[in-house]
From TrEMBL:
GO terms for molecular function: oxidoreductase activity, acting on the CH-OH group of donors, NAD or NADP as acceptor. It comes from Gordonia hirsuta DSM 44140 = NBRC 16056. InterPro entries: KR_dom (IPR057326), NAD(P)-bd_dom_sf (IPR036291), Sc_DH/Rdtase_CS (IPR020904), SDR_fam (IPR002347). Belongs to the short-chain dehydrogenases/reductases (SDR) family. SUPFAM superfamilies: NAD(P)-binding Rossmann-fold domains. GO terms for biological process: fatty acid elongation. This is 3-oxoacyl-[acyl-carrier-protein] reductase. The gene is fabG. The lineage of its organism: Bacteria, Bacillati, Actinomycetota, Actinomycetes, Mycobacteriales.
Length: 247
């Protein structure tokens, strides 16, 4: 049976681990070829191997705050595999602290990676896709950008900004056949979230009507939907994947 992304070429930033790798794995399973961008070169090499090697995957060391790096990432996809069909702007970091204790550097770092990084990726991908009259861009926001979470003035601001970016950019390129949507995950079980102190984890779990954390594969399923023609009449949307948290 043909995969739902057979013949499609995809770029995933922050693709060497966590949600980004889960999305890449699901897309490869559905027939896509993927180019992963990440700063962790060792994890990048391991991810490419795990996905099936050079025939279906490539890795590029990429700092998403650099427009030149992002351009090079996308160019790798178009020169290696022939086109760019789907762009997933997933790269992110956390620098949690209360506003009183947060440094200006911690604020700037998170805004740069999440918001400027998503803008760099959206801008560069849309420039390529508009020439072909088709393409899907998926930006990773967060429930934190909807409700605001204590200790995350930087992260909440960046993730809310991604929503605005997604909606504005979607309006600019919709008539060119390019769709731009966002996913807002809630508590997802990754190495980063599992490093939280137990009391914080439990307090977040108590807010989830479904009573459990989500899995990276569940974000990947939604990303697959947004990448395919199943969502052909959707653009500028934000899909919450939260187990009912903060509804």
């Amino acid at each position: 049976m043909t995969g739902r992304l057979e013949g499609k070429n995809v770029v995933v930033t922050g693709g060497a681990q966590g949600i980004g790798l889960a999305i890449a794995r699901r897309f490869v399973d559905e027939g896509a070829r993927v180019v992963l961008g990440d700063l962790n070169t060792e994890a990048l090499a391991a991810a490419v191997t795990a996905l099936g090697g050079d025939e279906v995957a490539a890795g590029v060391t990429c700092d998403v705050t650099s427009a030149d790096d992002v351009e090079r990432l996308i160019q790798t996809c178009t020169t290696t595999f022939g086109s760019l069909d789907v762009m997933v702007n997933n790269a992110g970091i956390t620098r949690d602290a209360t506003m009183r204790k947060m440094t200006e550097e911690q604020f700037d770092q998170v805004i740069a990676v999440h918001l400027k990084g998503a803008w760099n990726g959206t801008r560069a991908a849309a420039a390529v896709m508009r020439e072909h009259g088709s393409g899907a861009i998926i930006n990773l926001s967060s429930i934190s950008g909807k409700v605001g979470l204590v200790g995350q003035t930087n992260y909440s601001a960046a993730k809310a900004g991604i929503v605005g970016l997604t909606k504005a950019a979607a309006k600019e390129v919709a008539h060119l056949g390019v769709r731009i949507n966002a996913i807002a995950p809630g508590l997802i079980r990754t190495a980063m979230t599992e490093a939280m102190p137990a009391r914080i984890w439990e307090s977040k779990m108590a807010e989830i009507p479904m009573g459990r954390a989500g899995e990276p594969s569940e974000i990947a399923s939604v990303a697959l939907f947004l990448a395919t023609e199943d969502s052909s009449y959707m653009t500028g949307c934000v899909l919450e994947v939260t187990g009912g948290r903060h509804i």
